[in-house]
Amino acid sequence: MKNNLQNSNISIEKKIDWKVVQSNMKKKLGQDIFESWLKKIELIEEFNNYVLISVSTRFIRDWITSRYLDQILQIIKEYNKNITRIEFVIEDQNNNNSKSFENDLEQNNKNSIKDNVSFIKDSFLQYNRIDPNKNFDNFVTGPSNKLAFEASKKVSQDISHYNPLYLYGGVGMGKTHLLNSIGLSLKKINKVMFISAERFMYQFVKSIKANEMVKFKEYFRNTDILLIDDIQFMNGKEAMQEEFFHTFNALIEKGSQIIVSADRPPNKLTRIQERIKSRFSGGLVVDIQNPDYELRYKIIKSKIDELELFYSNQINITKETQEFISNEIRTSIRELVGALNRIVSFSRIYNKVPSLSEVRVILKDLLNLTENKVTIDFIQTIVCKFFKISKNEMLSPRRSRYLVRPRQTAIYLSKMLTSKSLPEIGRSFSNRDHTTVIHSVKTIEKLRKEDNELNINIDSLKNKILYNQENEI
Ligand code: ADP
Ligand code: MG
């Protein structure tokens, strides 16, 4: 079926390509919103007139529903007009590891087909956007990024002092922010071109097809400042690398400044010609390392200050929470900022200062490591102790009232605090059916709204489970 697609003209049933939808969401809603809310949602299944999408928590579902659903639907409709609504399932994505390789393969297949079918209209200029909100002033520095920051400032003052400047570091470490800051400060008096390597390749191929290579060359060779982001994605054919190399040399010769970012040092780049790598190494190469706790905390503080300006001092995030996220979210600054945005949004919609256990839930999918320490067995132990029943009683089929509520509570907490699927949870409760699990979760959710005492008990249980502490909070 797939092979036929490329050769036939009969109308093909378009399947939604989630990667393309994601990349459109990123474009339409902005990287920050995408990172905070949309990156981890997955397409589960496409039906005739609706799609099923998974999210990791109820909170994220509600947030997405209230803010972005229309736009997401519009994007999906571009690929399948018949889709009229989006349905959610709340599922943890952590359980799908074994399948991900297959998914990748399948995804690649779909992509290559899609590339032949769709064609996106755009111009060079559309991709030369510089974000005024990412500047030197709001770039927070610490030992891990100080050199990169200094070097970036330096090239913004003395053009071609370090040429090229090559910045590298892991995902979400601030490379694009720095490139953007350089562009921003230089564009007042220079012709600045800011483009990702992927875009560069795309434009290159498009120009060849459209017979517009002359324009392409002129366009790039005319800039004073060329900022190329994520050069590791440059994996084009010889002809393209050839063109890039010539552009590069021509620019350096005429005294233009080139700044390149990558996720690795020049000598570790694969699929890039040796002579290009060696030109990269010929300038100044600086890395950005993982931020330490102090820097993470400083960044949180600085983002909160920014948000307070924006929301006129209505941001109320406890110091404890600030320390908690600075401590827990270590993988990248992007994730750190994304986590803060989520908490701020929560606090704004529910109009309250989130407690630490709420923060745990809001950030559930980002706190994988900690979360995995919580086992269903442990939850059962704590819940049994709290309600003064034995584990045998909890797991028994008996339906006496004094056993049902604790059992439902333990099931509910297992769903909330672990990444286990419904059937897995059912199995841990003497092979109960997953519908029983759903029923328990729903019952407790409903009761939490009506029964304050139960609500307090559950919060207190949650704290005990998450912090392994026995004293009341
Ligand atoms: P990269 O390009 O390295 O993947 P980005 O530059 O896109 O990372 O940074 C991710 C997010 O983190 C952006 O929102 C950026 O503004 C923010 N950020 C990164 N480093 C810093 C920093 N030192 N100070 C303030 N914000 C930062
Ligand atoms: Mg980047």
Low-confidence stretches: 1-12, 93-127, 469-473
> What is the SS-derived class?
alpha/beta
Provide a count of the helices.
23
Radius of gyration: 26 Å
Alpha carbon gap, first and last residue: 59 Å
What is the beta-strand fraction?
Answer: 5-15%
Most strands sheet: 5 strands, parallel
Q: Strand order, biggest sheet?
A: 5-6-7-4-8
Query: What ions, cofactors and ligands are bound?
Result: adenosine-5'-diphosphate, magnesium ion
What is the total tally of β strands?
8
Helix content: 55-70%
Mean pLDDT, as a whole number?
83
Shape: elongated
Structure notes:
- It contains 23 helices and 8 strands.
- By secondary structure, it is of the alpha/beta class.
- The chain has a 5-stranded parallel beta sheet with strand order 5-6-7-4-8, with helices on both faces. Strands 1-2-3 form a 3-stranded mixed beta sheet.
- α18 runs antiparallel to α20 (401-417) and α20 (401-417) packs across α22 (434-450).
- The longest helix is centred in the first third of the chain and has 18 residues, at 100-117.
- The chain binds adenosine-5'-diphosphate and magnesium ion.
Using brief descriptors, characterize the structure shown.
473 residues; disordered N terminus; single chain; 5-stranded parallel sheet; alpha/beta; binds adenosine-5'-diphosphate; binds magnesium ion; 3-stranded mixed sheet; disordered C terminus
